[in-house]
Specification:
The protein is α+β, with helices and mostly antiparallel strands. The chain has one domain. The chain contains 3 helices and 7 strands; from the N terminus they run ααβββββββα. A 7-stranded antiparallel sheet has the order 1-2-5-4-3-6-7. A hairpin with a 2-residue loop joins strand 4 and strand 5.
Length: 133
């Protein structure tokens, strides 16, 4: 595995920020800390399969939550280039936002695909591009 370097990270896209903003409400503890960690967060594509999963880099000096490791079920995302849903999972390591995994059910959306809809684990609509546009 390649070492993470600052050069690999970038500012998140609008769609990535939408996912992250909803994702920080999914963990069982530390929500306010994770919301603050979004300020200045940097991202990069980490998955080798070509999906839009992203590694996260919290800004230096950001407060950390008490949870050492947590996996949070965010819900399901749908993209415009596939008909399938992706399971959205937030990983927290050492009290910091670490990775936002987009696990496709069958088809893999490309990193350039546009987010169409985000649903909670209970299938409530959290975001719909149709309602925004």
């Amino acid at each position: 595995m390649r070492a993470r370097t600052k050069a690999n990270f970038r500012v998140p896209t609008d769609d990535e920020l939408i996912l992250l903003t909803h994702a920080v409400h999914a963990p069982t503890r530390g929500t306010k800390t994770y919301q603050r960690q979004l300020n200045g967060i940097r991202v990069r594509y980490d998955c080798k399969c070509g999906c839009p999963s992203i590694g996260l880099q919290v800004r230096p000096g950001a407060a950390t939550a008490k949870a050492a490791y947590e996996v949070a079920d965010v819900g399901y995302a749908q993209y415009d280039d596939v008909s399938d849903l992706c399971w959205v999972i937030l990983f927290i390591r050492d009290g910091k936002l670490s990775e936002l995994e987009l696990a496709p059910m069958n088809e893999t959306p490309s990193p350039r695909a546009k987010l169409v809809r985000l649903e909670s684990p209970g299938r409530d609509i959290l975001y719909s591009a149709a309602e925004v546009n």
